[in-house]
Amino acid sequence: MNLSDNEKCIFKLNNIGLLSAYTSQTMLFNKISKYFGNVLSINSYRISNYPKSSILFYRGDSWKDAYGEHTSASYLNLPFISFITKFFSLFLKVRKIASKLDSNTNIVFVYSMNSVFMLLALFFKMLKPNVKLVLIIPDHPMHMRSNMSFFIKIFKQLDIFLQKKMLGNFNSFIVFSKYIIDDLGLQNDRIILHEGAIDKSTAISIAEKQLNNYLNDKVIFMYSGVLSSSYKIDVLVEAFENLGEHYELWFTGQGELEKFIAVKASKNSNIKHFGVVDYNKLLDLQSRASVFLNMRDPLSLASKFSFPSKLFEYLCTGKPIISVKMDGIPSEYNPYLDFLYDVEVQSIQNKLQSYSLESYEHKKKIRPDSLRFILDNKTIDSRVNKILEVI
């Protein structure tokens, strides 16, 4: 794609959450930077509010890398207060950056449908009227939390109302689930359905890193992500507990069930929680795992409006993947996934037991070539070209 001289730099407002999602979006923008020049990004790191998190005040930082300049917001990490302090911290950063940028910066990407970042994008457009606003919607903001209190539900509904009002000011949308388009009533003709992608070199590196774990004396199941009852992690642990000594269950990530898992692990040495790990450590653990787990509640609306980006890495390994059947996963992935159609204890246990030491090697050999599927269809290069055509 040939770009004009006034489209050589982009500005990114970024709401950072899970490692898998952050890795996916980083790969996307690193590739986009090759077309537009350096990326200028303002980031906000999502962490649990104090006292669930030990961090009362998050101090922002600034850094540079090969792809651009980045800064993160400082804020007071208390319920509702974090929303206000985060907004004003980011507001000052946006105003400062806007005063230094010339007209060459005319594309703003906003990662995630977040009111703070959407408002900041509109403010930036007031300062730079010719700017194009591109909103990336990886999931539906109303349906990604469970067990919300009455007041939080009211606040969230008002938040969604505000977000929908702002949608008309955006020029293009990158959406991770087709159901989001209908639910939000997006009418813009510049919409691309993009559940994610992975860099080709990363995909090949992951594939080369794998070990022949079926030669071990245990089958190792691995789950990475949110440790929450809304993802049925407690049910998974209960289903695993009686499998026997030839199985292990590994967890990475954080959530309200961390203490629950720690207690279970103290009583069962075959359950291991590695906590929040960096990307290299995550890839190392994946290379030693036997079977990957993608857990959700298949009846929740969240499973309809989101796509588990960790599947890209799992598919590159060529190893079996047990996944809850989610409406948010397009049907083209079906041949490469071993589906769980319900998340009752007995159903999960039966599925896990089907991966015995005796059956694992056979199951691994008869799987379709998932790495080839990724390389042919889901690399960043192929997806970015389509995105640039739309925006």
Walkthrough of the structure:
By secondary structure, the protein is of the alpha/beta class. The protein has two domains: 9-194, 3-Layer(aba) Sandwich (Rossmann fold); 200-376, 3-Layer(aba) Sandwich (Rossmann fold). Helices cover 41% and strands 19% of the residues. The strands form three sheets. It has an eight-stranded mixed β-sheet with strand order 4-5-2-1-7-8-9-10, with helices on both faces. A six-stranded parallel β-sheet has the order 13-12-11-14-15-16, sandwiched between helices. A two-stranded antiparallel ribbon has the order 3-6. Helix 5 (178-184) links the parallel strand 9 and strand 10. Helix 10 (310-317) packs across helix 13. The longest helix has 20 residues, at 81-100. It is globular, with a radius of gyration of 21 Å. The protein starts with 8 loop residues before the first strand and ends with a helix.
Task: Explain briefly what this protein structure is.
The chain is of the alpha/beta class and 391 residues long. The chain has helices spanning 19-36, 81-100, 115-127, 150-167, 178-184, 200-209, 233-240, 258-267, 279-288, 310-317, 345-353, 357-365, 370-377, 380-390, and strands at residues 9-16, 39-45, 57-58, 62-65, 68-72, 75-76, 105-111, 132-137, 172-175, 191-193, 219-224, 247-252, 271-273, 291-294, 321-324, 338-340.
Oligomer: single chain
| Secondary structural class | alpha/beta
Mean pLDDT: 84
Integer count of domains: 2
CATH superfamily of the largest domain: Glycogen Phosphorylase B
- The portion of residues assigned to helices is 40-55%
* CATH topology tier name of the largest domain: Rossmann fold
Mass-distribution shape: globular
In which order are the strands of the major sheet placed? 4-5-2-1-7-8-9-10
> Separation of termini?
11 Å
- Tell me how many strands there are: 16
The CATH first-level class of the largest domain comes to Alpha Beta
Tell me the CATH architecture of the largest domain.
3-Layer(aba) Sandwich
Helix count equals: 14
Strand content: 15-25%
Largest sheet: 8 strands, mixed
List the secondary-structure elements in sequence, H or E: EHEEEEEHEHEHEHEHEHEHEHEHEEHHHH
Low confidence ranges: 1-10
Radius of gyration, in Å, reads: 21 Å
